[in-house]
From TrEMBL:
Keywords: Hydrolase. It comes from the Bacteria. GO terms for molecular function: fatty acyl-CoA hydrolase activity. It comes from Allosphingosinicella indica. The keyword Hydrolase applies. This is Acyl-CoA thioester hydrolase. The lineage of its organism: Bacteria, Pseudomonadati, Pseudomonadota, Alphaproteobacteria, Sphingomonadales. Belongs to the 4-hydroxybenzoyl-CoA thioesterase family.
Length: 153
């Protein structure tokens, strides 16, 4: 392995319409019993969503710098099934379920192997810099539509 490979941040990617993002549970993610603190699942999912957008070809930083707008979580429903623990290898699976003019709904699962640990449905609204909802850029809608799960609205 070369130094340049080691210096490049990890990036997930799509398998069909499902985005895969792998991570390891570190000590900072856990409580004193070595169990992942419940709010950290939301952090893991946020990283996976940001990586999913990047993998779809969406540059959130450029849009923010240009004043076009940003995504913000408007709603999240999460269900915890089993605890993740220190040193677990996890994969966050993300699928776009709904694509609307000013938002998208993403279903996410935190998995340890084939075992689901948590799952969430997250609505991400596209907001102007004034904090008000606005239409997503057309190019973003087209990019996300390429990876939208089948059988969804």
């Amino acid at each position: 392995m070369t130094a340049s490979m080691l210096d490049t941040p990890y990036q997930g990617g799509f398998v069909g319409t499902t985005h895969h993002f792998a991570l390891r549970v570190y000590f900072e993610d856990t409580d004193t019993a070595g169990i992942v603190y419940y709010a950290n699942y939301l952090r893991f999912m946020e990283r996976a969503r940001s990586d999913m957008l990047r993998a779809a070809g969406i540059d959130q930083r450029s849009a923010l710098d240009a004043g076009d707008g940003v995504y913000a979580v408007a709603e999240a429903h999460i269900r915890y099934r089993a605890p993740a623990k220190l040193d677990d290898d996890l994969v966050i699976l993300s699928e776009v379920r709904e694509l609307r003019a000013a938002s998208c709904v993403i279903h996410q699962r935190v998995m340890r192997g084939s075992q689901p640990l948590a799952e969430a449905t997250v609505t991400a609204a596209f907001l102007g810099l004034d904090g008000r909802p606005r239409r997503q850029p057309r190019a973003w809608i087209e990019a996300i539509a390429r990876f939208k799960g089948e059988g969804t609205t």
